[in-house]
Amino acid sequence: MSSNDNSRARSRSQLVASGVRVDRGVRRILTDLSLTVAPGTRLGIVGENGRGKSTLLHVLAGRLTPDAGTVRRVGSIGIAEQEITVREDRTVDDLVDIELADTRAALRRLDDATRSLSENRAGADAAYAAALDHATALGAWDADRRVDVALGELGAITDRGRRLTTMSVGERYRVRLACLLGASHDFLLLDEPTNHLDQHGLDFLTDALRATDAGVVLVSHDRVLLKKVTTHILDLDPSIDERPRLYGNGYDGYIEGRRGELARWAQDYEQHQSEHARLAGDLSAAQNRLQSGWRPPKGTGKHQRATRAPALVRSVNRRLEDLRAHEVTRPQPPLQFRMPDLPELAGVTLLRADNVTVTDRLKTPVSVELSSRDRLLITGPNGAGKSTLLAVLAGKLAPSHGSTSVASRARLGFVGQESPSVDRRTARDIYRARLDQLLANGLTEADIVSLRSLGLFTTTDLNRPVDELSMGQQRRLDLALALADRPHVLLLDEPTNHLSIALVDDLTEALATTPAAVVIVTHDRQLRIDLSHWPTIDLGQERVTR
């Protein structure tokens, strides 16, 4: 397919949202949202966890009907959600067929038109030309090859007969993403697409999104991806008029624009408060004059003397009412993570692993020795055993060979790979149950951490069932539970997955100074840049020791 053919096909595509509003009970998720995604637009969506980023993708894709507003869709849409619901019998090939349905249909129409042409049927020439143009525009003959290339480059499973139920969340996501990239959809809607990719996959995805002339809508916390790919950023965080803000000039334009927006909001709020205080003072003075029998100076007309003070009161009241009608809300400070004071055990080896391996999961023998204030970054391609190693260090998985030991007084905090929760308890109740367990095991109130002190949740979100929280909010709870007993060692597996950009920055800063030993597995490119001075284990080597 030539680029000109594809450009002509794309030029008719439209994805337009107008006045979209989405409510969840008494909570308003999206307010008066309007946007247009054109061919070649690469729109990043950012905002605190729970602001409606994934909800917006579902609205744009037509999977969720908004409470108000409309969405106009012209062209094919492919969406990669954070989790794929799979049937027992569905295979990799089934996913490929789903995403390539348009190209399969285009080739069938071309076959039918070819037969009609060979049989000299009426109108066969025009039908054949139209079918050929459509198949060419989709690159239909090349679609399966494009999928196979993407499967390989993303490190996805290439066995078309493999059942999805036998695969991990990350493996299924990589297959779905490869299918989308090969399908030549007019619009790609991607929810946290970097969460399950290694460095090679990240580079391939970045290049593919930069090269496509499709419209792209991208929910991501990956600052490198946002910087390299986006042409526009939609910010769902609070604004002065409660409406989302759209910034041009990519990620840099968003950073600059958001900073200016918050400064203007703060200035308007201060001016509004000052004017309110001044008018309240004027009203109090006018009321005091009425009560004291004040009259204007002699020489003023009798009628004016009788009405001047009441008129002043009415005037000030009118101005106060007008001010209240145009109330400026206080700028909402973003949630800010506060790392608790974690303990240090000087001169003690907190955690030790000697030549550990796990059959079929961690083939590279690893030795690790950790003391307080130690730092360790674990890297390697997908399938090398990074998450397996962390589970072994955390005591969640026994090694097939080798051994591990933990100091008698050392406490370990572990954040594993994300998994959607179906728990109907609230975040507050789950955390309270964890604290009760710790107290029953001998810890004191001084040893444990208050959930509110961490700055991870609003009061409203603390009281919502966990299965109604976003994946980012569920990740926050995972982090809170790991910190509940003030651990001496923190073991974090992809800790930035699904988290807001602001929280990732807070967490990165906190990890630099805590006296606890910290071990991180991450593919987050910016985080790896920020932690590049940490000692590193690369599981791509034959044997590693730290």
| CATH homology superfamily name of the largest domain | P-loop containing nucleotide triphosphate hydrolases
Instruction: Tell me the Rg in angstroms.
Output: 30 Å
Beta-strand residue percentage: 15-25%
CATH architecture of the largest domain: 3-Layer(aba) Sandwich
Mean model confidence by pLDDT = 87
Q: Helix count, per DSSP?
A: 17
Intertermini distance: 51 Å
The shape, in one word, is flat
Show unreliable segments.
Answer: 1-7
What CATH first level of the largest domain would be assigned? Alpha Beta
Largest sheet: 6 strands, mixed
What is the helical fraction, as a range of percent? 40-55%
Number of strands: 18
Q: How many separate structural domains? A: 3
Structural class designation: alpha/beta
Report strand order across the widest sheet.
5-6-7-3-8-9
Annotated CATH topology of the largest domain: Rossmann fold
Compile the SSE list and pairings.
Layout: H1 3-10, E1 14-24, E2 27-37, E3 42-46, H2 53-61, E4 68-74, E5 77-80, H3 92-99, H4 101-118, H5 124-138, H6 143-153, H7 169-183, E6 187-191, H8 199-211, E7 215-219, H9 223-229, E8 232-235, E9 245-248, H10 250-291, H11 302-325, E10 349-358, E11 362-371, E12 375-379, H12 386-393, E13 401-406, E14 412-415, H13 427-440, H14 459-462, H15 471-483, E15 489-493, H16 501-513, E16 517-521, H17 525-530, E17 536-538, E18 544-545
Parallel strand pairs: 3-7, 3-8, 5-6, 6-7, 11-18, 12-16, 12-17, 14-15, 15-16
Antiparallel strand pairs: 1-2, 1-4, 8-9, 10-11, 10-13
Helix pairs in contact: 1-5, 3-7, 4-5, 6-7, 10-11
